[in-house]
Amino acid sequence: MEAEVQAKVDLWRKNVTEPDLKEELESLIASGNEDQLNDAFYRNLEFGTAGLRGTLGVGTNRMNVYVVAQATQGVADYLNAHYDHPTLALARDSRLKGEDFQKVAAGVLAANGIHVYVYPRIEPVPTLSFAVRYLHTSAGIVLTASHNPAQYNGYKVYNDNGGQIANEAADEISASIAKTPMFGAVKMMDFEEGLKQGLIEWTPEEVLDNYIAAVKKVSIPGFKADPSYSVVYTPLNGTGMECVTRILKEIGVENVTVVPEQAQPDGNFPTCKYPNPEFREALQLALDLAEKVKPNLVVATDPDADRMGTAIPHNGEYKLLTGNEMGVLLMDWLIKMAEERGEDPKRKVAVSTIVSSVMPDALARDHGFEMRRVLTGFKYIGDQIDQLKDEGEEDRFLMGFEESYGYLVGTHARDKDAIVAVEMCVEMAAYYAARNMDLYEAMEELYKKYGYYLNGTVNASFPGEAGAARMAEIMSGLREKPLTEVAGYKVTGMTDYEKCAEMPRVSGLQKEPAQKLPAANVIEFRLEDDNKIIFRPSGTEPKVKAYLFAKGATREEAEAVRAKLQEAAESILK
Fold it and tell me: Which of the following is catalytic: 94, 129, 138, 146?
């Protein structure tokens, strides 16, 4: 074992008082498994714009109360340096240790003189973004690991506008964390003492009530579902239950059946190892229930309710729509609804990411709205709303989406919102049902009109210290020796987003000059026949991702291209 790792182990052994962590550390030492000890201590969990995320356990490379306390001291230092009387909104999802982490974070903030509003129950991520804006706090923190397996938890920081922090703030907080010793330097206050002193305050119920009202406001005017219209819903043992059922009732959809095994919060996620609504396995209990109750639509939200997945009953089976397909469907439907209300489509602005489907570009050219592309991360979509607001044109925002099942309609939040996504999806599905179409058929009509734009993702995992080195090697190799062909398709162009690139934009009223995107570790290879492949390391997991873009005149043709691209990507990422 390296001397630096051994020194960390000795330090923790001397200072850890939490019984479960102390027991785990002693067990690791007694086992003699140096690989496990090294993985737990060889580095500190990296703090970035996505905050922290890691597996639960003892060590500097794990999520635990000491890592959370140290990170929160960094946040507190940042807030006290930039605000005279800082305040913060705090929330958590249903994950293991979430309540412990919430109390520790609140106590550290209170000890640093920062007034903290704490949601009294688990709540979805978008309600935290809304709370920051509604309460006018200086920042927000939400304890979540999104749709990762049960052994994960995480820590996301929001700016004073309800969006995730930008690079500059993340760098400053990270520097503050780095100079704060794990033990002895963090200011602490007991949670109950913070409540007594008034430094910690339960978030008033009016905040959630106003969030629901804001979500309802984006409902299509005049929407009225058929009384027989029915939905099967699963919150996947997460936070979505309260808000989803409330908003569906608000818009008059009351025939909702919730999957009983997944209705209650449970951070162990006992019914599915990977609570990600992208995958059929996570939706299986909902699909089994649907076979009995025969709903018009199946919807699922991930544990922190910022992503939504769907299943569509079609010709006796259930078709799952991808995140890209749902984004395209919503965009097409929302612009049609705007046109029906007499609004000028050329004034509208839709936003998506560079790794999401390029099919919206075809919609933008057809309808005339402006389509903007930003880097991966919903904070960049939120930034575009802020720019429109600064220009007095917030009403131009049509919607934002990313391929990983995140959507935002309305400007009440600055992060993806599965609650408003469920509302919009149900209204859209009811709209098509009244015209004797399901959402799968509606998507097929769009494919036939614009072409089959199919996407795929290859995820290559590289855990541990050696994995981190391999990830860096892959990305540097693509830069030093750029690909000239992929799967038999010639490379027609390359963009290295590490060298600031211009924002891709299509159609609309582009009054201002092209914007520059921030530098990012992303490489794009454009291929002949309108195909494409993009490589980027994940910001939250030890993975390199390859995003596949295939186009064909038919589904079969596009699927064949995608299969070739997938095989090539898997070879590149070995």
Answer: 146
